[in-house]
Structures are given as structure tokens and as C-alpha cells.
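Researcher: Structure prediction, please.
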Amino acid sequence: YDVFDYESHYLWSKKTNDVLELLKKTGKFYFDKDNRVVLDQKGFGLGMKMPVLVLTRGDGTSLYALRDIAYTLDKVSKGENIWVLGEDHKLYYEQIKVALLMLGKKVPRVIFYSFVLLDEGKMSTRKGNLVLLEDFMAEAEKKAQQELKRRYKKIDKKAAKIIAHGALKYSILKVSPEKNVTFNWQQSLSFEGETAPYIQYAYARISSIIKKHKKALSKKADFSLLNKKEEIELIKKLAIFPDIVEKTSKELRPNTVATYAYELAKLFNEFYHVHNILKEESKIKQARLLLALSVKQTLKNSLNLLGIDVLEKM
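Model: Predicted structure follows.
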């Protein structure tokens, strides 16, 4: 995040009073029997028995909804505004949306996420049924260290942290927002299948190939030499990346980029399994190295859009 905005700022700000003054002009503003300020939201299809939004307590102090409207007005004045909410906030969003429409203000775009569930018994929740994020992240790092030790007989804590955080993020972002995420440690941290470590490993593999070349890459390669089936598939996949990004931005569905990154990594691994790069004759080697470099950069760009870091070696 670039900045953190705190709700407490709006507890003492006059901006909530400014919002109340604006809402008074809508003709939908009234005091109920408990002296609370209420916004009548009838006629907007909210599906509530009593479609009202309570904005203050009886003593006049603001409630969360009023502070949220004030905060939203600040944000919409600064450009694109996107809310990321849990699916249990759908009605609340509609109520805030109605309030903003009453004020003639731009309504934020929204993406709703379903719940993240843990496999039973995979992580202790003590006596509760919720897991704190900090505990979840710490457990992920611990398990990533164990996986690295199992694979390479050593532990790199920095690499483990990058792998762990990437695994958590990717496991959530690869799933369509409207679907529940069932988190499984073994699957998420696996170096096989649709996981962040699999994509990160493909990136690191390309870095290793380029490093072994030990020479500057020529930009005058003859790309017409890339005529094998696996090479053509890779080139086609690379070509659609801008369209994938545009689609993701319009639809607010990061799972589109997540799926693309996995498919690109998979195509590269299939290509590399069939075709040698460094042992080919010079012209083909140069063309394939540049193709690999393009895949590497696109994988990095894809993961970067998901907030996931890469590793030059794994």
C-alpha cells in the first residue's frame, strides 16, 4: 500500500457534518424516534423490509456508514475508486451506493470476494474458528522453509518468505471472486500445478538459462527460425498479454491474469522439455534465448500485477 487512511480521522472531522448537510437537501433525511439521523432509501429496490440507512446515534455521533460516505466522497474526487469487499457486504454496498446516487456522486466500482476456508486440521485455530492473518503468514513461511529444506537441503529465509507470500496470494487470486477459496497448504506450496511456486520456478529456470549463456543477447535474432509447434504456441501466448491485462482491468477479475501466468509458465516448461536452447546452433540459440527472455519478462509482469515477487534462483 502507498498510504493508510484511518477511520478515526473521520470521527473528529467536520466532513461527516458536511455530508449530513448535503443529505438534508435530498428530502430523504429524517430523525427517528430515538433521535437518530436516518436516510429513507425506499424506491431503490434494496429488498429490505425497512429500507433505511442509519447514519448517527441518538446523541448525534456518527456511525460507520456516515463516515464511509464521507471517506468515499474524498476518494471519488481523486480519480478511479474500486472497493474490494467480502460478499457479506453486498447489501451495505448497495445502501452506500444509493446514498451516493442521492447526492449525485460517482459510485465506486466494486469486486466482492467470497470466503477463504482452511482445510480442517491443517492449522490450529485454538478455540476459535478464525485465524489471524499474521499467524497465517507466519505458518506459510514456516512451511515454505520446510519445503525448501526438503528440496535443496538448506533454508533461505528470504526466498521462503517470497514463496510463502506468493503462494497465499496466488491461491486466493486464481479463484473467481464469487467462489469460496478452500486453502490447502500442500497444494498451495507445491512446485507443481497451478501455484505461485510453479510460476516462480519457471521464471527462475529462465534466469538460470540466460545466466549460463554468459554472453550479451543479440537483438538481431532471426525469429523466423522459431517455427516449432511449442515455439509458436509460446509466441501466441505472449502476444495476448496486453489483452489479458485490459480484460482484467475492465472486469476486475485478477484470476484472469493468474490463470494466464500459469498457462504461460506451463507452455514454457513444455517447450523446454522438448527443445534445447543452449546447445543449439548459434542462430537458433539466439532466437530461443530472446523468446525465453520475453517469457521471463511477461511472467514477472503478470506476477507483479498480482503483488507477487519473483526469485532469480530457486
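Model: The chain has two domains: 8-113, 133-305.
Researcher: Thanks, that helps.
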